[in-house]
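Suppose a colleague, Dr. K., hands you the sequence of a protein chain of 234 amino acids and asks what its three-dimensional shape might be. Before reaching for any lab equipment, you can write down a predicted structure in token form. Begin with the sequence itself:
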Amino acid sequence: MYCGSHRREAGFTLLEMIIAMTLLSILVTLLFASLKLAADSWQVGEAKIAQVNRKAVIYQFLKRNFAAIRPVPMLAVDGEAMENGMIVPVFQGYSMSLRFAAPMPLSAARKGLQIFDLIASGNDLLSLRVSLTPYYQSASQAQNSGQKEQTVILDNIRSISFKYYGVRSEMDAAQWNDSWGETELLPKLIKVTILLDDGSYWPDMVFPVLINAAPAPADNAAGNNGANNNTNGQ
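The predicted structure, expressed as tokens, is then:
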């Protein structure tokens, strides 16, 4: 009688083992669910950070270069700033493309004044590309330089638009325009509206153009560093 009671106290019944295994499986399931939730949250957080970083890079790129826009003319093959008796400015703005001249920062490998071409193109989704061409005294030098660079700075764009605020002549009132050309004056503001394919929020970006004047004569905008120094003095 004593021996049988001792054997029952030394082990577990089948029902106790089933209950213990059930509780253990529940705890393991909850643990893995928590780990999966944490991993998914981490991935979502990293994706959000990547989106913010990408937008910040584009914003800083546009802000720096738009603020440094210079009013210089396009140069003909002979180095003159006149074409059929008229000055043709470098700055030409449209709804999905923009051309302007601005100096590169001192830390950049390229030096001096550069012509930026921002173009949005594509089929279902758009890509924003930028190409750089040195602002040479002669257009023939630029054609033979082979230094033009083109880079995609933003892709997966559903829509993009550039708008320009300012006066085209002293007689006009300042207003927003879908394009900017046929005037020697620069716009006062440039607004960029971008909608990405992922639908993430991106507010309109408005950048000031710090210099507003007629294009400088060709002899005041010749060569890389010379062009940069002379246009800064305007």
